Amino acid sequence: CDCSRSSTMPSASTIMELLLRPNEAMAVVHLKRSMSKIAGKNAQARPDPHWKFCFDMLVKVSRSFALVIQQLGDDMRDAICVFYLVLRALDTVEDDMAIPNDRKIPMLRTFADDTENVGFTLDIGDGEYRNLMREYDNVSKAYMDLEPKYRAVIKDITQRMADGMIEFLDKGVHTVEDYDRYCHFVAGLVGIGLSRLFSESGREVPEVGENDFLSNEMGLFLQKTNIIRDYREDLDDNRRFWPNETWEQYAPNGEFGAFIRPEHEGQALACLNHMVTDALRHVPHCIEYMERIQDHHNFLFCAIPQVMAAHTLALVFNNKDVFQKVVKIRKGLTARLFIETKDLRSVLTIFNEAIDEMADKVDPADPSAEKTLKSIDQARAAIRKTMESRYGKSVSSTGSLGLADVAVGLLLVVMLATTALLDIPAAMGYTEAAPAFKYQQLYFVWSGLFYAASLAFFSSNPSFMRLPSILHAAVTAYMVRGDAASGNWDITTAASVLPQVVLAAALAQRAFVSKTNATRIKID
């Protein structure tokens, strides 16, 4: 899910979302730090000007894809960076509506050969895409630096994609078969090319690169999710990728744009849910593909976009906002998914989380409800089968924050701010009040550290907070006992202590529940 068009400055709503979800705020910080380290390492590995252009351009045209590419091994990172930029440039030619088809067709047809010409450039496209095309000779230089086995894959896929683009220049997407074929050309071929690159590198077995069906399914799931999400943007740009065979069943008077009108909300949601149900049929095959990837870096490269797509699909399902704007998952959730996607087990858990979210949103009155539930059951069966075959147990949903977690998070923010800004300065004598006793000073410093650690770990790793929560409750009880014995206990003291006791108990309870859920084996 591409976030390249997003502003680098967080909006007020984004900041509020992160405050309400501390685990996502920590994930954002951790991700930025991790990727900065990787980017610095990559810059040192490839200091040549044309490679610097490629990696810089990659971030500009697709920040999210750049993130997953940067963590790959050196040979795969370089080959896939070039592969992506070549295909992005080809797509720029196809997208430029100022080029008439009689000129565009030969440009598409010869693009794979032209890429081997180090001096080849074009003055087309808009924004950063125009800069990419104007300095495309840098991409050609990087392409020629690659080993011949990688260049052969890139050239073959580029040529096949160009042929597919030519086929659909005037054809349009009329049937579901057309829809699958179009997605194959623009995304399935990418999956096939990536699988071949993996196998050519020796990091994956030859069978990975030979299984075009599963590779194609990976691309179709991503592409269909983007096409569904981008309904409004494509409509405003006078483009249409939803198949006529589907949307004409629901559109009043056969008008694709009618879905944006409030009076047609029911038909719009019915069509949307039909499209989502179609995309769900690819999930079992995607899981099967990811199960076959052995190299850890290759696995993360494949898995992260898939879990993003799964959560995007859950977000757009039965969501009327799709017809008014481009609906994207929260930046904090994006970061959390990056961080939590570590292995096949975590991927299955995240997929299950997204599938559960969709199941909760199914409207029994929806025309596609029965098919949707069947697709959900098939996805769950694939997740359960893979989890049980690999780990001997079924998957349980984790990671999403409930209302109780949000309340605890807010209380933690308030308590940390109060302790850091009021209690500690007063206890240390930095205000007009007299300094507190040494043990009281230590207590407030401990409390500040406890609240900060709780914000960092209470959702992402709650079991870590078991001992600190018990210790904090014990220390607080000791302080209360001392205040009561000295005659300092009053209603103000009680009001300040109560939230701390409740908070410590809630954190301890969540930590023990998390531990229980992590070890429980559920039999379905």
Tell me what the structure shows.
The protein is mainly α and 524 residues long. It contains 25 helices and no strands. The protein has helices at 12-20, 22-45, 49-61, 63-70, 74-95, 101-109, 111-114, 127-134, 136-145, 148-167, 176-201, 206-210, 212-229, 231-236, 244-247, 265-280, 283-292, 296-316, 331-340, 344-361, 369-391, 403-427, 438-457, 466-485, 491-519. The chain is globular and about 90 Å long. The protein starts with 11 loop residues before the first helix and ends in a 5-residue tail after the last helix. Mean pLDDT is 84; it is low at 1-9, 397-401 and 512-524.
List keywords for this structure.
globular, 0% strand, mainly alpha, 524 residues, disordered N terminus
How would a crystallographer describe the biggest sheet?
A: none
Compute the number of helices: 25
Radius of gyration: 27 Å
- Helicity level: over 70%
Structural class: mainly alpha
How far apart are the first and last residues' alpha carbons, in Å? 32 Å
Strand content: under 5%
- Gross morphology is globular
What is the total tally of β strands? 0
Low-confidence spans: 1-9, 397-401, 512-524
